[in-house]
Amino acid sequence: MLSFYYLCERQIHRIRKVFLQKVLNQDMEWFDYNESGSISHKMTSGIEKIKDGFSDKIGVFILALSNLVIGVAYALYLHWKLALMMIAVAPLIILSLALSSMAIISASKKEAKNYSTAGSLAEEIISGIKTVIAFNGQLFEYDRYGKVLQKAQKIGIKKSMITGFFSGVYMAVLFGSIGLAFWYGTQLVFLKEIQPGTVLTVFWAVFLGALKVGYALPNLGIISNAKLAAGEIFSIIDKESNMDDSKNKKKKQKLENFEGKIEFRGVHFSYPSRHEHKILNGINFTVEPGQHIAFVGKSGCGKSTVFSLLSKFYHHNQGQIKIDDIVIGEIDENWLRSVIGIVSQSSVVFTDTVIENLRMGNPSASMEEIIKVCKMANAHEFIEKLPMGYDTVIGEGGVGLSGGQKQRVAIARALIKNPKILLLDEATSALDTESEAAVQEALDHAREGRTTITIAHRLSTVKKADCIYVFEKGYVVEAGTHSELLELKNHYWDLVKDQEIKCAEKHSPNDEIVEN
User: Fold this and answer.
1) Which of 176, 272, 326, 364 is least surrounded, with the fewest CB atoms within 10 Å of its CB?
2) Does the predicted TM-score (pTM) go above 0.70?
3) Left (φ > 0), alpha (ψ -120 to 50) or beta: where does 4 sit?
């Protein structure tokens, strides 16, 4: 039995590593269809079910079946007529086992689905706990979670009843065969075909083997759960990513003497989960090496989608995207991401020290390089004030840092890569006015020598851009410098006026953004 535990631990360790590796290599389309809570549930509960089912439970079943086979063989050797009489009920036992197995597997699938949904819901509630408490929604979320759990509980009870019923059927058939064996054995003794001691030996040989199987029968549900969980886990492990260049037979390019030119020609795109809703409708633009351009427009008009396509999170549907005049599909995705620095509007900071969060951008970065980029991002001063400076462990999700501080850490993480292309998706939106001014100045210096695309909500941050592209419903409706677009008095003008009105309503003269 020890060997089963040893082999199981080794395999479970390997499965965990391979599973996470495969998840990390999946494309964004896969994540659109698979909730993070469901994935983490498989990673924890699913793999634990495999461990429970294939450690001692398999060993117990193999041992029980071995006892039965050896017992029946020995009984046949002693007196085949009596042994056959005892095992004549075997078809009934096999039928009951088959029916119970089918019913348990069916119930286990429904149970696992409901528990996975419950796990996703629990993760959603915990991650949004501040919102839940702010709206006094604890009881509401408790009831919502309870309803999902209740469905799983009902299925679990049904599964337990099925297991109990068929275990009872098995034992009833077994003891019925015992009565039949003793009756037939008595007849054989009267006919002097067998000795009483042989009757008992045949009986115990078959009975003990069958009894072992009976004791192992409740493990069938656990093994069925493990089999189901293994199917879900290995379906992910066996799935190849459409975006994984390592599996592509055609060698992808790593560009030498990379300059950072970007070109979009007639690009159309819709997300795989929403094919009917087009996000980009034939957009065109060119960014020359070292140039700074900006995207502006209302939320949902397709600005951030451009960044997703440049990072090869998705494939565009039509048109052409080129990097340094090379079609993006021919460029190695890992290399491309290594030369792109991106800061999103809701940056993620991981549970680790500040320095390790920064080294995600460049694992080989020296302390001097880290301090340099943190000063550029206006982050060095507040990091130094943390309890252990750069060695301070940041809590889960960046707890302990303000929104502005997390954003500045994210900016430093992007800059430490020394990227040739810099993508800023409302990178200063979470900062106060004072911090924004300092970081904006730092980003102005960071943009030197780099191709930069800025998505901005505050139009004051893009006034100095070489070209501003105005997006509306997936189209580029205007392009030009700040002053050129103001002269047109069209889409960009409307955005500026809307923002001026909002600033005036808030009585925030420092946020005014237009200078004619």
Assistant:
1) 364
2) yes
3) alpha
What 58-61 contacts at long range (C-beta under 8 Å, 24+ apart), as own/partner pairs, is 58/4, 58/223, 59/1, 59/4, 60/216, 60/219, 61/216, 61/219, 61/223
Tens of pLDDT, residue by residue over 223-232, are 878 888 888 8
CB 511, CB 433: distance < 8 Å: yes
Six-digit token string for 74:
């020995």
Within 81-200, strands assigned E span none
**Chain CA centroid to CA 119, Å:** 13
Quick check: 101 and 152 in contact, CB under 8 A?
no
- DSSP character string of 250-282: SPPB--SS----EEEEEEEE--GGGTTS-SEEE
pLDDT at 135 over 70: yes
Predicted confidence at residue 371, as pLDDT, reads 93
What is the SS3 assignment for 128? coil
Query: How sure is the predictor about 516, in pLDDT bands with cuts at 50, 70 and 90?
Result: very low
Supply 334's token pair.
Answer: 């890992």
Angle at 346 between CA 504 and CA 353, to 5 degrees: 130
The amino acid occupying position 77 is: Y
CA 384 to chain centre: 34
pLDDT at 510 (0 to 100): 47
Q: Which residue has the tokens 């980029």?
A: 373
Residue 264 to residues 242, 298, 310, 482, Cα–Cα distance (Å): 22, 21, 10, 22
Closest by CA position to 502, among listed 489, 488, 513, 516 = 513
What is the Cα–Cα distance from 456 to 152, expressed in whole angstroms? Answer: 46
What is the three-class DSSP state of 500? helix
The answer to whether the CB of 482 falls within 8 A of the CB of 452 is no
pLDDT of 454 = 92
* Contact predicate 244/25, CB 8 Å: yes
Q: How far is CA 224 from the centre of its chain?
A: 25
Vertex 369 angle, CA 368 and 372, to 5° = 85
The predicted-structure confidence for 334-355, as pLDDT tens digits, reads as follows: 899 889 998 887 778 888 889 9
Reduced to 3 states (helix: H, G, I; strand: E, B; else coil), residue 455 is strand
Task: Calculate the dihedral angle through the C-alpha atoms of 451, 431, 429, 368, rounding to the nearest 10 degrees.
Answer: 30
Q: d(Cα 331, Cα 315) in Å, to the nearest integer? A: 13
pLDDT computed for residue 423 by the predictor: 92
CA 413, CA 355: separation in Å to the nearest integer?
A: 10
CA 243 to chain centre: 16
DSSP-assigned letters across all residues of 74-98: HHHHH-HHHHHHHHTTHHHHHHHHH
Q: Are strands 326-327 and 340-343 parallel, antiparallel or unpaired?
A: unpaired
Per-residue model confidence (pLDDT) at position 257: 86
Q: From 62, 47, 515, 474, select the one nearest 278 (Cα to Cα).
A: 474
Q: What are the tokens at 215?
A: 């004791």
